[in-house]
Amino acid sequence: MPTASASAQPLRRVGVPLFFGLLLLLGVWVYRDYGVSWDEANNHLNGLVGLKYVAQVLVPKLAAREALNRPWIPDIRQFPDSDHGAAFEMAVSVLGYLFTDGDSRSFYLLRHLSVFLMFVMGVWALYQLGKLRFQDWRLGLLGASLLVVSPRMFAEAFYNGKDIVYMSLFLLAIYTLARLLQRPTLMRALVHGVATAAAIDTRVQGLQLIIITFAMLALEARFTKQPVKLSGCVLVYLVATVVFVVMGWPYLWATSVPDLLTAIPKMGVYPWPMTNLYFGHLIPASRVPWHYTLVWIFITTPLPYSFAAAIGFGSWLKEAVRTRLNTLHTFSGRLDFLIVLWLLAPITFTIVFKSALYDGWRHLYFVYPALLLLAIRGLLSIGRVAKRYGQWRRLALGTLVLAGSEVVHTAVCMVQMHPHENAYFSFLPGSVAERLFERDYWGLSYRQGLEWVLANDPAPQVPISVPWYITYYNNSLILTPEQRARLLYSHRDSAHFRYFITAYRWHPQSYGDSVGHEVHAIRVGGVKILSVFKKN
């Protein structure tokens, strides 16, 4: 196992702060470039609903103020999404009241920056976890770098306040769990409980962290012979988790115990009545085939990461079988088991229980860091082959060079695709990808479509139609007030629209000339993600 030598420590003191400093600067540079996704306005409303209820309970005078007493902010008991975790959205809403001028553009820019800062925290947690597992800060930094050079993850790190924020908090909780396993103390158990609660308060699926924690503490008790010490940690962890979950989830304050018991089974299953474009067919989300998640992971993850992770998993499995799981006697062996459990258990659960899935594999983004840690293990395995077996040395070294070149190529692609990295496909030709799979399912490119129309049509009012009003409305929120004033929404069935903008969701086929002639298109990696038509 590699160790960071003393001579590398000065480099670490410079390299790590430089990496995270540059990442923050990059985020500040580009966070203004993205549109508003399909879910953002409703997620913000969820935050306002929760904040309004908290104010009503704790500070009634504050709740009576206009900012929280607007008629379009429903009561928490009548809001259908109030059982969705709202801790992050509530925090961003508070920041919006404190630091913006009340205009929608300034709020959504602040929100995008806030999501990115949560992503940076997740990158930091992955760095720490990789450093802890491999006992080398350079490998920790490699894992953090691979997460950043993941096109879809990087793009969604600016607007996906559910899945990316949850991934970051889940990562943080896994790191706090690893520290607890390394040295069980009551303080570390408390910190892990807070981290677990933060994840649960974002998505109820965070409850699986409790199961993972119990499983790993059971292994710890089995192989380290310290059950008395661990029992105190378990108690502190459970109390902290319950207390902070309730503190951060106003829905639990407003719900009676019988209603809560009725709602719990529904919280982890979000019925979605729409369809996914999958291998060229529109399939209901509740009936996606078992391989849906696996295929989406493969076609949207850079190939070197996938292959290295497969090698890493293979090396772990070979070692586990050869030693008959004796590796669990070591801390690093138990961490490896945790990483494999983290990656495979959630995916297996969705396959076995036939979970409703949509929008690619975003509901399972939180397993992606585990894949990257296995990829690092795979790279180390290739490196060991190069050292031990002369006849395989050239092939192993060539593989590492090729993988490194592909990572650089991925970074270049991200620059070329910006701000549409969310439409990245790892190896599919553009014509194949747009025919077989969803493209810009978030609807972000509508922002660029609206901006193009306003820049190229001098009329004081521009009638525009879209297939789904929400994509038009959401992306208008991040335009300037002057731009919004020129927009005039027209229903497609009316005869008054001048432009028709589409991202081809639920209509992957060509529109022909049914809505006019195409005057503008956005292509990313050969994939057409948006078209602007002008009425004939």
UniProtKB/TrEMBL annotation:
Pfam families under this entry? Answer: PMT_2 (PF13231)
Spell out the InterPro entries in the cross-references.
Answer: RgtA/B/C-like
Q: Does the keyword Transmembrane apply?
A: yes
User: Where does this protein have coiled-coil stretches?
Assistant: none
Molecular-function GO terms, alphabetical: transferase activity
Per the record, the domain of life is Bacteria
Membrane-crossing ranges are 12-31, 108-127, 139-158, 164-181, 232-252, 294-317, 337-358, 364-383
Instruction: Describe the location of the Glycosyltransferase RgtA/B/C/D-like domain by residue ranges.
Output: 115-243
Output this protein's name: Glycosyltransferase family 39 protein
Indicate the secretion signal residues.
none
- Keywords of this entry: Membrane, Transferase, Transmembrane, Transmembrane helix
